[in-house]
Amino acid sequence: NGLPLTASEEVRSALVRVTNPTDEPTFFAVKVEFVDAEDKVLDTVVVGVEDAPPGRTVTARANSRKAAGVKTFPRVAQAERG
Length: 82
Hints:
The chain has strands at residues 2-7, 12-19, 26-35, 41-52, 57-64, 73-81. By secondary structure, it is mainly β.
């Protein structure tokens, strides 16, 4: 789930929430795309979440310098549990 956080001249950030449905701490990788109003991908960022606790939701930030200062919409393009 990618939620826009800030639009600044230096960086564009998105909040990424990951829920671990397993019984053990688990690593997650989430690929976030920052797209403009025409659905053009301006940047792609991969966020790693190490040792997400079992049954819990944790948050991380995906930051893009390429999408800074531009109205963009973050979206999750891919997520992997490993």
